[in-house]
Fold:
Amino acid sequence: MGRKCFFTKQVLTKRLSIFLVAPLMVLQSMALAIPQPCAALTVEETVMKAMADEMDRSLKRLRLDGHSQPYYISYDSSETERFEVAASLGYLTGRSHTHWRTLEPTVRVGTYEFDNSKFYGDAPGTTGSSGLTIDNNYDAIRRKIWLTTDTDYKSAVELLEEKKAHFKRNNIDNKYNDFTKEEPDVSIGKPITLEVDEKAWSDRVRKLSAIFREYPHIQLSLVNFKTSVCNRSFVSSEGVRLVDPTEDWLLTIAASTQAKDGERIKDMEVMTGFKENELPPFEEMERKARDLAARLMLLQSLPVIEDYDGPVLFEGQAAAEFMEEIVCDKLASQPESLSADSISMRNNPLAEKIGKKILPRSLTIVDDPFIREYKGSRIFGGYNFDIQGVKAKRVVLVDKGVLKALCTDRSPTKFSDHSNGHSNGYYGSSSVVFITSDSKYSNQDLLARGKELAKDADLPYFLIARRLLDPNAAPMLQMPDSTSSSVVSSDSSSVLPRPIILVKHWVDSGKEEMVRGARFEPVTMRILKDFDMIGNEEQPILMGRAAENYTHLVCPNFIIKSMEVTKDTSTREKPPVLENPLTETKSN
Structure:
């Protein structure tokens, strides 16, 4: 959970498949193991030695006739132990304690200036992540490393030849090098083991899930707890040697209901920590579960919004979700890649705006993977070394509204010739982001400004968005008859998550009225010009990026001068024909 938390949403979808097949990989790798432990070495020492020895042999002797040897090799092995338990309505729906190890090799052929990367051709792909024996057996581990290295080297050679031919055929200049040279780090942390009271947590999860029996109009509810330790070992031909242990604790409470007109209404509460004692006490977990249930009951009875075009005040979690989707998700380098048909594979709308003003002068954005606490709150989502084994760095991305840098990996671009330790394995990615304001405006000032803007637009009210749907809620709470929304984003536009708590604030009376059934129309980067007023108080918000992956984003409240909000008709589905049987049981 911890090391993956800084991945982008797109990459996480690809990476999730690794964990879905993990049990199978474990069984396959265990079948290869010779049951003779290396008594003189610990597990981590055995893995590191096997990777280093095979890497040295490959660098010296791995070569196809007429082709180059590898100029760079790295091996990334993660040994993960996880306990997970889930329950619904007071009964366990699943419990598991798993243990697996993966290996991800990287083999580069050519030179730092021009190699087999950033090109998609007809050559077979690399092996990617695969299972590795969890037994402490040097021979079994090294044998798997040998086989995967051989496969990846052959693929790299074939792809490099395709790339050379493509560049020559199309008279393409190689504008930038393909791989940066970075100073290697050596950091050997102390491996950790998973220590968890499985019975105690199973009981807690069961008790939390039973709370929803008191709310029979809630159609689906789930409480899920998981904790894991990951001991990562990384070696590279440049001299990087890492043992980087991480520990994660995650509790999720999710539920959904349905309004009479068929709208699905869902929401969730998430609690995280790097240690067990960083999770809240059980009494707070119970309160969050009851608050969630009560919130859903209120939401299903609310009036439906009418179409709206005017100022929107974003507060708290909604403000953070806005900045994550519209800004932070794009503050990462995306080096251009080519395919055999000459189509560019990526486009970052902010890439050409470095040195230019993109946000109000009052805003500064810093990415800091090392922060673990902020104003008394625990911060989740940091890491020490990125996927490419580069030490993470604090990066000033936006300084007083001016874009200064992007989160980069080891792929040089027009604006970066070094990595700042933010690789997700495919390109750059943000981690823990701090959006700070030097504004002097209070929350009361924001409300007053919202009224002014509404009056100027001849509107009787303006909207306040306080909570948007966590991206993880949709897959967790999928109903048998659910259909996906037809609104999708593109390279030029973004779609904000559906608003969960959306309030009309009436200009004359100051009265607030909650509404439901809304969606934001897709927006482009042009929306950044519509920031009107920004508050002076930041708060850390836990953000869901994909399954199991959370990070904090620190953000102030703000007003967007004009946004289109419409009725979301794509989420209407027929309610169940019969009532929930728990309703009848309760009445009897």
